[in-house]
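Q: Please design a sequence for this.
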């Protein structure tokens, strides 16, 4: 189903070759969401309790604020004891392998631990507060999305609410949740949080936004973003491996990386692709995204150098960088631009 691009000149197996394709198929009869085993053993409840303890001196993400979120104190992510949900619905704009034909059960958390000046969801991530949501309610939302037929539960911007997510999944699993979980992240995650998610998350979907610390500081206000992203994506791959789909093309387990192509090649696309191919896997599934548009503070007139959409030549150069690095499971979105 996914518009995979493969290229024999890069010495990779073609997806149409049955033996190679089999490497990336997880038959639905052999799949069970990861968290169910932890739920049966009682480990998921124990993990939730351990995760919640981490809120007392919050080091949940790399910002290391140290505030007591159990006492509802807040810091960089403006989120206290309870997650804030902005909206939730079956999403048909995600990758084919996630949206399928009944949608990806997407839950958008409000607030964020990054400050992307170009944020494409600025209202949700930085401007407006969502509804504080109890763990019971968050579990109900997952079950509602399952009941309307969604193929997965897709947590968007969850880096600052990992304990609350685990707590809610434990409740939802007891009440009959059976869908794979997608952790849809900026990759500005702490190793501690990711280790708590080991065996809970089925599909990791990290962005890799910037390779260098200078643009990271300027555009997402986190100089250590590249280091955190590299560390996080390695750990996600260690836990779940390369992306595997069932016979119908629906994602079941593994890592799907997103890379947003930026104007003027400021993201360091070439280095990111080389890292993925050489230090993660040449079989890493990557979505090379073309939809950058001026938004957030950029659309208010600041950051003139990125106050435009990308051109098709810039997009082609990004694709070429991926292929040259040896990646071949590439999802392509043709840019609506010159
Ligand atoms: S999750 Fe929020 S409070 Fe905790 S370290 Fe990150 S930004 Fe700070």
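A: Design:
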């Amino acid at each position: 189903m996914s518009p995979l691009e493969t290229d024999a000149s890069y010495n990779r197996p073609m997806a149409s070759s049955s033996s190679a394709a089999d490497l990336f198929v997880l038959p639905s009869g052999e799949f069970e969401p990861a968290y169910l085993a932890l739920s049966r053993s009682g480990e998921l409840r124990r993990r939730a309790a351990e995760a919640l303890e981490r809120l007392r001196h919050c080091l949940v993400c790399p910002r290391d604020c140290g505030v007591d979120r159990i006492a509802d104190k807040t810091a960089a992510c403006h989120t206290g004891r309870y997650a804030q949900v902005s909206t939730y619905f079956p999403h048909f704009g995600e990758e084919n392998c996630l949206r399928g034909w009944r949608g990806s059960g997407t839950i958008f958390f409000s607030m964020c631990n990054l400050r992307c000046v170009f944020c494409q969801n600025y209202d949700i991530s930085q401007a407006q507060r969502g509804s504080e949501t109890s763990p019971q309610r968050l579990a109900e939302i997952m079950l509602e999305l399952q009941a309307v037929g969604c193929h997965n539960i897709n947590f968007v911007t969850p880096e600052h609410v990992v304990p609350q997510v685990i707590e809610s999944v434990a409740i939802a699993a007891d009440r009959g949740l059976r869908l794979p979980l997608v952790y849809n992240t900026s990759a500005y995650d702490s190793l501690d949080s990711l280790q708590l998610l080991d065996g809970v998350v089925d599909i990791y979907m990290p962005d890799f936004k910037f390779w260098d610390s200078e643009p990271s500081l300027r555009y997402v206000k986190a100089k250590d973003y590249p280091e955190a992203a590299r560390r996080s994506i390695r750990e996600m791959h260690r836990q779940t491996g390369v992306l595997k789909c069932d016979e119908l093309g629906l994602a079941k387990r593994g890592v799907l990386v997103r890379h947003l192509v930026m104007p003027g090649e400021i993201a360091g696309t070439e280095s990111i692709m080389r890292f993925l191919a050489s230090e993660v896997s040449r079989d890493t599934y990557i979505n090379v995204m073309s939809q950058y548009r001026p938004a957030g503070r950029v659309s208010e007139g600041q950051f003139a150098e990125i106050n435009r959409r990308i051109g098709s030549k810039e997009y082609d150069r990004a694709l070429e960088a991926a292929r040259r690095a040896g990646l071949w499971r590439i999802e392509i979105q043709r840019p609506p631009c010159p």
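Q: Thanks. Anything notable?
A: The chain has one domain: 4-332. Residues 58-61, 63-65, 67, 75-77, 113, 160 surround iron/sulfur cluster (CB under 6 Å).
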